[in-house]
Amino acid sequence: MDPKQSARHERLDELQRDPYPLYARARQTAGLTFVPELDAWLVARDADVREVLLRPDDFSSAQALRPDVVPTAAVLGVLARGFGKRPTVVSTDGAAHRRHRAPINGGLSAGPVAALAPYAAEVATGLVDGFAADGHTELMSCYARRLPGAVIGRLIGFAPKDVPVAVHGGHRAEQLLFRPLPEEEQLAAAEDVVALQHLLDRYARARRAEPRDDLCSAMVAALAPDTGLGPGTRELTTDQRGELVSSLQNLLIAGHLTTTALIGTALLHLLRHRDQWELLCARPEFIPGAVEEAARYDTAVQGFRRTTTRPVILAGTELPAGATVFVSYGSANRDEARHEDADVFDITRPPAPTRHVSFGHGAHGCPGSQLARTQLRVTLELFTRRLPGLRLAESHEVVMRPTLIHRSPEELHLAW
């Protein structure tokens, strides 16, 4: 990596580990603020964030997940053995977005999420049983990465033996897109991503042959409908396989990394505010409020990019067609114009007339928000009951992961 690129990544790391001072300055600055590290205009105020999210015709999602790191030629060679990147629910607009979103909306509606809650509680209990007698644990690896993986795996329809491979591949895909790794590590991550893609392809083809009552089958039926026109038509085409792999990979990553981050930051801030943790243990009726406050205060998905489709004026700033904006949910959730004492973590905060934007807003609002909330609620119910003496381990500094996509502690060492 050349020195200029290395310096940029260092500045980006610093920004992403703690973006809130930048957000605060941007909210107090007239117009939009251009951030070189993001190569984008920062949309920081709540009203402006909501405006962009309600104008998908003017602010396209096509480059929502533009990578921070450009893969090397050798890495691209490894990825070529998998399935090329295709548009998904995150990176489409209009009719294409609605087509991708329809099966996901059904699979993540109130009924399926409620049906998954007992399974989530069972998995969570088993994980806590595994370390409760130890007096200490590293939460991210022993719990926060494992519960959401098991739950989204059950929803999609994975066999239990395939869940660890799928979860690992999802983490590696995120690293490859957003972390400046040494080339050797990039190559290893690319191999893991390719392995994940071939696993997803096997599931898609198996569900075309024998549909089941799971989200994978629903996505196959919606995105690659069986025309029934004659022999051989039940086989998925190469294009259909590529689209399904991209869509399943996106669902998998969104379904577990975001909830992993939410669990990690929720426990971090509750334990940093000891009085609120003790209040939660004594009065579990505050758990729903704690879920919302954790999501608002330190948002798991800090934001997404949008690209202008024509010249527009936003917050008084003139933007040409093709301009990139970073729509910051994390900043909007700290906007004093929307949330009183916005920089204060308070689980007793009265419900706001208008909710935070932690799970998006408008057409691209997160369809899995209730599933994420359910898993955090289950976690807080279990931990306050089983481990009321929980505390941050004094011997370990908490370092946040340098990403704006799934903000969470790198590790979270706890003791009791």
UniProtKB/TrEMBL annotation:
It comes from the Bacteria. Keywords: Heme, Iron, Metal-binding, Monooxygenase, Oxidoreductase. InterPro entries: Cyt_P450, Cyt_P450_CS, Cyt_P450_sf. Belongs to the cytochrome P450 family. This is Cytochrome P450. The lineage of its organism: Bacteria, Bacillati, Actinomycetota, Actinomycetes, Kitasatosporales.
